[in-house]
Amino acid sequence: MISVDNLTVSFGGWDLFKDISFLINPKDRIGLVGKNGAGKSTMLKVLTGEQPPSSGGVSRNGDCTIGYLPQQMKVADTTTLYAETEAAFGEVIDLEKEIAHLTEQITVRTDYESKEYETLLHRLNDCNDRFQILGGLNREAEIEKTLLGLGFKRSDFTRATSEFSGGWRMRIELAKLLLRRPSLFLLDEPTNHLDIESIEWLESYLKEYNGAVVLISHDRAFLDNVTTRTIEISLGKATDYKVPYSRYVELRNERRQQQMAAYLNQQKMIEQTEDFIERFRYKPTKSNQVQSRIKQLEKIERIEIEEEDLATLNIKFPPAPRSGQVVVEAKEAGKSFGEKHVFSDATFTIERGEKVALVGRNGEGKTTFARLVIGESEPSRGVVRVGHNVHIGYYAQNQDDLMNGDFTVFDTLDRVAVGDVRTKLRDILGAFLFRGEDIDKKVKVLSGGERARLAMARLMLEPYNLLVLDEPTNHMDMRSKDILKNALQKYNGTVIVVSHDREFLDGLVDKVYEFRDGRVKEHLGGIYDFLRDRQLESMRELDRANSSAAVAAQSSGPGTNPVPGNRSKGTAGKSPANGATSPAKPALSGKELYTLKREADKQLRKAERDVEQAEEQIMALEKQIAGMDKQMADPAAHGIDLSDGTLYAQYNELKDQLSKLTYRWEELNIELENAQEAVAEFQ
Questions:
Q1: What's the pLDDT score for residue 636?
Q2: Among candidates 526, 400, 397, which has minimal Cα distance to 469?
Q3: Closest by alpha carbon to 195, among 219, 229, 161, 231?
Q4: Per the record, which residues fall in region Disordered (predicted)?
Q5: Cα 165-169-171 angle, rounded to 5 deg
Q6: Residue 455's closest CA among 436, 476, 438?
Q7: What residues have CB less than 8 Å from 314, skipping those under 6 apart?
Q8: N or C terminus: which one in the chain shows less Cβ crowding within 10 Å?
Q9: For the chain, how far is it from start to end, CA to CA, in angstroms?
Q10: Which residues does 648 contact at the CB level (< 8 Å), separation at least 6?
Q11: In whole angstroms, what is the distance from residue 83 CA to residue 568 CA?
Q12: What is the predicted pLDDT for the residue at 562?
C-alpha cells in the first residue's frame, strides 16, 4: 500500500534518518517508537507529504488515502459540532446534491431515446453506486455513533465548536478523521485528550477497522491492545518487529545484548589494531603490515549502539507526616457553575494511606473535585472537608502554565524552597534529569515532558501527606511514568490521582471513584476491576434500554418477533396471562449480538478463573494454618521454641491473609453470578 524506499532526511548536514526502507501493508497495525527526538513525528509528516525527504522517497498506490492526526492542529470555530463533523462527508454531500440535480433533470426531460438522456442515466447510476459505497444512507448514524464513542453527549451536537476546550476540539478533528475512513490512519498521540472510556472505544474501533494504522503513543496499554507490529527508529535507522509493544521491549533487550557483545568485540579488535599500528608505525621492517592494518581499519563498518540513558529518575517523596485517620470527607457535596450542573450528592471518605483514582469522561467533575479538596473552590452544596493535620501537595493538569516561563529551572525551585532543602536543590534537579547547563534553561524553552518533571520536582520540596495529582503522566515518556508510579507505590501518604492511563493506575490504586452523569460512585478494587464492572453494567444497561424500547413499541402498535438469544431473564418462551405475545426487544444486528455475547463469555471465563484461583489459595492457607495448629499444640514434639513469639506472629499473619482472601472470594462469587446472568441473557 505504501513503500518507504531508502529514505533520508537531513537537517543542516545532520541525518535524522538515513536509507530507511519499510512497507505498510493493508490492515497493518504499526506502533512507531523511539526516544524523544528520534524523528517519529517527522516520519509521519514524510508519509503524508508535509515533509519532503532529502533523498529516497515514499510511494503509494493510487487508491491509498491518508488520514493524519498531528499532536497540535488548528480547528474550526465557525459552526456547530454536528455540522463540523458532517463536513467529513463532503464527497457524500456533493453526491447527494448531484443525485438530486440529475433526478430533477431526468424527471423533466422527454427525449428518452437521446444520447444525452442515456448519459444522464449512467451518471445517476454511478453517483448512486458511489453514494452507497461511501455509506451515505448511514451518515447520521455513523456521526452519532462516533461522537458518542468519543465522549460527546447528544446535547452537545447543536453547540458551537467555539464553546469547546482545546482537548474537545481535538476530539472533533479525530471524529472527522475516523468518519472519512481513509486507507491509512497516521495518529500522533491520539489518546492525549481522551478519557478511559473513549480510549477503550477508540481501541475497539481501530482493531476492527478495515484499513491500516500507524500510531505514536506513550500509552503502553493502548499500543498493546491496538498494534501487532512495532517499528523502532533509532540512530537514524528503522528496525521492524512483527510483535506488539510489550513483546518488542523484550526482543529489543535481547537484541541490544547481542549488539553490545558484538560492539565490545569490535572495540577490542580496533584497540589491538591501533596499538599495533602505533607501536610499529616507524619500523621499516613492519611497514607493509602497518599499511595493511590501516586499510583494514578503514574498511571496518563500525557497529553503533544507541547510548542508553542510565540516569534514573530517582523520585523519592519525603516521608509523610502523620495525619488524622480521615483525610478527605465529602457529604452530599455538589458543584455547579451557574446553570451548568457538574455533580451532586457525593458522599464518601478517603482515609489515611489510601491511594484512589478519580475517573470518568472529561467535564464530569474530576478536576473540579480535586480543586474542592485543595480549597481552590467551594462546593455549591454539601461539604468537602479535609481532615486533621493534612498537608496537601497539588499537581495541576496545567501545571506547566502555572510556572513563570522567564524563570530558569533552578530559580523555579529556589523561589519556593525554604530551610535546609535549599542546599539540596541541585541534587533534586539531578534526580529529575536536569544536569549541567540544563538547570540554567528558562522554563519557556522546556519541552512538555521536561516541564512535567520540573513540576513534579517542586512537590518534593515539602513533606506532604496528601498528594492530589491531576493527569501527572501527560507528556511523560514510558520510562518516566514507570519510575513515578514506583515512587508513588512506595509513598506512605495518601494519594488522589486523576488519570486516564490504565497502565499507570494498575497496581497503584485500590479504589476508584467514577464521575458519571452528575453522580459519584465508589468502586472497590483496581482500575481493571472497575473497567470489568463497568463493562458488565453497560451490557445490563443496554439490555434494560432494549426492554424499555420493546415495551414502548408494544404499547403503541403490533409487537415484533423477539430476537433469538436476546430475551429477558425469566420471560423466554413464556406468554403473559392475557395470552398476548411477550414484549420483544428491537432487533440487534448479528454482529452486535455476537460482539456482546463474546464479551459476556469472556468475562464469565475470567470470573470462573478468579474464583478457582482464590479457592486454591484459601485451601493452601488453611493447610498451612492446620500444620501450625499441630505445632503449637505440641511444640516439644516438633522441636519448636514459642518463647520469642515468632511463630505466633506468623500464625496471626496467615489468619489475617485468610480472612482477607475469604472476603475477596465472596466478592468474586458475586462477580461470577453477575457474569453468569449476563451470559444467560443470550441463551
A1: 66
A2: 397
A3: 219
A4: 542-593
A5: 120
A6: 476
A7: 431, 483
A8: C
A9: 43
A10: 632, 642
A11: 39
A12: 38
Strands (E), 340-493: 340-351, 355-360, 381-386, 392-395, 466-470
What are the cell numbers at 99?
A: 443525485
Task: Classify the phi-psi angles of 122: left when phi > 0, otherwise alpha if psi is within -120 to 50, otherwise beta.
Answer: alpha
Helix extents (H) in 232-379: 245-280, 287-299, 366-374
- Number of helical H runs and strand E runs in the chain: 19, 18
Residue listed under C-alpha cell 496537601: 392
Residue with cell 482537548: 167
- Which helix (H) or strand (E) segment holds residue 96: the answer is helix 90-108
Residue 671 near residue 599, CB atoms below 8 Å: no
Name residue 609's amino acid: R
Largest CA distance in the chain: 117
Per-residue CA distances from 612 to 420, 528, 530, 626 (Å): 54, 19, 20, 21
Strand 494-498 relative to strand 355-360, pairing: parallel
Contacts for 17 with CB less than 8 Å, ≥ 6 apart? 7, 8, 9, 39, 42, 43, 233, 236, 237, 238
The secondary structure of 468-521 as a DSSP string is EEESTTTT--HHHHHHHHHHHHH--SEEEEE---HHHHTTT-SEEEEEETTEEE
Give the per-residue pLDDT at 356. Answer: 95
Of 478, 476, 4, 473, residue with least CA distance to 223: 478
Nearest to 148 by CA among 125, 124, 178, 180: 178
DSSP 34: -
- The answer to whether the Cα torsion of 490, 491, 495, 499 is positive or negative is negative
For 181, which DSSP code?
A: -
Q: H or E element: which one contains 59?
A: strand 55-60
User: Which of 523, 486, 490 lies closest to 503 in space, CA to CA?
Assistant: 486
Taking the chain (683 residues) in runs of 10, the rounded mean pLDDT of each run is 86 82 90 83 89 86 84 73 85 85 85 85 86 77 88 86 79 87 89 84 89 91 92 87 90 81 85 84 79 84 66 69 92 88 91 93 87 91 92 79 80 80 77 79 80 81 89 78 86 92 91 91 90 71 55 48 37 39 46 68 83 85 80 69 68 79 78 79 65
Closest C-alpha among 352, 385, 58, 13 to residue 214: 58
Q: Which three cell numbers stand for residue 503?
A: 497502565
- Could you tell me which of 32, 26, 34, 27 has the C-alpha nearest to residue 45? 32
C-alpha cell at 508: 497503584
| pLDDT for the residue 546 | 55
- What's the CA gap between 232 and 629, in Å, rounded? 57
Residue of 196, 177, 179 lying closest to 187 (CA atoms):
177
Q: For residue 32, what is its C-alpha cell?
A: 512507531
679 Ramachandran zone, left/alpha/beta (phi>0; psi -120 to 50): alpha
For the CA atoms of 148, 152, 157, 161, the dihedral, rounded to the nearest 10 degrees, stands at -140
CB 449 within 8 A of CB 476: yes
Q: What is the pLDDT of residue 130?
A: 80
Total-model pTM: 0.65
Sign of CA dihedral 134, 140, 141, 145: positive
Closest residue by Cα to residue 364 from 342, 385, 345: 342
